[in-house]
Amino acid sequence: MSILKPGKLPPDLLQRLLTTYAKADSRVIVGAAVGEDAAVIDMGNHYLIAKSDPITFATDAIGYYAVVVNANDIATRGGQPKWFLATLLLPEDRTTETLVESIFAQIHQACESFGIALIGGHTEVTYGVDRPILSGHMLGEVAPDALVTTGGAQVGDVLLLTKGICIEGASIIAREREADLRHRGISDVLIQRAQNFLYEPGISVVRDAQIACTAGRVHAMHDPTEGGLAMAIHEVATAACVGLVVEHSQIPLLEEAALLCHTYGLNPLGTIASGALLIVAPAQDASMIQGELRGNGIQCAAIGRIVPASEGVMLTSGQSRQPLPRFVRDEITKLFVL
Length: 338
Description:
CATH topology of the largest domain: Phosphoribosyl-aminoimidazole Synthetase, Chain A, domain 2
Shape: globular
Oligomer: single chain
Distance between the termini: 20 Å
Low-confidence stretches: none
Number of helices: 10
Structural class: alpha+beta
Largest sheet: 7 strands, mixed
CATH superfamily of the largest domain: PurM-like C-terminal domain
Helix content: 25-40%
Number of strands: 13
Strand content: 15-25%
Order of helices and strands: HEEEHEHEEEHHHHEHEHEHEEE
């Protein structure tokens, strides 16, 4: 039996595990499924949204990362992130009070920024880890008639993408490989600019999602994370049982991200991509959503369309048309493992 490599579980394996072991009850509106960002539970007059996500690639600013990436998945449900719990595992022989306090300060900064309360969790110094690992757990709320899922895409819809891809990937590269980038001749100005991608344009899509949902009808939203934009698109298609045609030339890629990915031989389509938001909307609403986002200073591009499942998930470039690749193993792992 082969050993699984770092990264997400293979989709077929995950699907089998969820089908076999994930049992929901009648109050679970959205349960465990490939591609769905968060669980949704009926609480009567409102829905409770629950999400958990760890920070495993980044070591710098992990407190901020953990809050924001979990808040993103509440927002993709059309909801408001409200309560955060943190499970923090710290390496033995290397953990100081200063380190722990810095992580808590990062969590506090992010929670303050988004009106979220830190309500609990667990911390411990433990053996078997060589760096801090932070697993975040976020709760939020949404009105039943405002709920959005990953699986709501419909044939004929337009696929929108905010900001651009590799925002998080570029920030991680610049933070984790700063000295090596200088050695390779990358300027300090570009490195610092990419490091700041964490905050500007930022890895949060909470505001993107809120603006989109007020500007027009949104059938689906999804937050590209591990596996990058390509895996997120595949997850949208899987969740909704549809196909997708994506135009490569329409995908916005930040200049700094393109350079840093090229430096380490990473494919931007498969590089961790928090900061971008996929929005699926009816054609007649897509332009309104684009306009509202742009009016609020958020870039938004129409990158594709939803087609019948029989047409597959395709990437076009000029006259070329081929299946969109899958990145079960995020490209960023090439920086951390052989």
